[in-house]
Amino acid sequence: MFKEKIARFGLSAMGFVYVLVGVLTAMTAFNWGGQKTGTKGAIAYLAGQPFGKILLATMAIGLFSYAFWRMYQTFYDTRNLGTNFKALFTRGGYFTGGLFYGALGVVAVKLIFGGGYDNQQDLIIKALNSTYGRTFAVIFGLILAGKAIFEIYFVLSGQFNKNVQSSEMPPKAKTTLLKFGLIGHSARAVVFGVMSFLTIRTGVTIRNKKMSTLEDAFQFLNNEFGDIVLGLVAIGFLCFGLFMFVKAKYLYINIH
């Protein structure tokens, strides 16, 4: 029961981050203020709000909870996926997700104590500007491409629909979850694909290399395709956040 609560709290925290990213970026796209921001920028945004440290502490706990749950799923195979290629691919997605959101929790903790978050990419930047920078750029780019492919695969493989339909939730909640999830996962696939392209291109052709961020991807989409496309992708991120909220409330959590 305690592990289930950790999982649901973590899913809610992740949902909140994506809602915030989607809202702030959509507001910018439609000239309503806001800012193009990624997950770290969204966490930093909380620091400037009333009760900022309380919000950051809550988010840190939630993000660490999500990271714990993803790692637990990875190593204990709570969904009984097995060890074939498809299963390892899925569990690898859980693992990288756990690492990413655990690192985001660290960002929240640093902000609580007055630290910054811009130095999070220092090790990656050093690697990309080393003798083997081009190789590292390709590797990081392919990792991001893998995340984009994982998002597409999760929806098209039927696993996404199967997970929702097998859950014990009201029919209306299932319909809502499917719609939000389809839009949200598609938006993530687009953004991870753009980040992959930018990382590989920047790493191979330009000095002072860095791994592309969500902000870079949003800026690229805005520059190349305009405000409407950026707004649609931002709404996709908002839908993904709402999707996580619905999952947190209703999704069956296997804690064997």
Record field, number of beta strands: 0
Helix content: over 70%
As a percent range, the share of strand residues is under 5%
Radius of gyration, in Å, reads: 18 Å
How many helix segments? 10
Quote the distance from N terminus to C terminus.
10 Å
The rough form would be described as globular
Overall pLDDT confidence: 84
Structural class: mainly alpha
Q: Quaternary status of these chains?
A: single chain
Q: Unreliable stretches, pLDDT < 50, 5 or more residues?
A: none
Main sheet overview: none
Query: How many domains comprise the coordinates?
Result: 1
Q: What order do the helices and strands follow?
A: HHHHHHHHHH
Quick recap of the structure?
By secondary structure, the protein is mainly alpha-helical. Helices cover 78% and strands 0% of the residues.
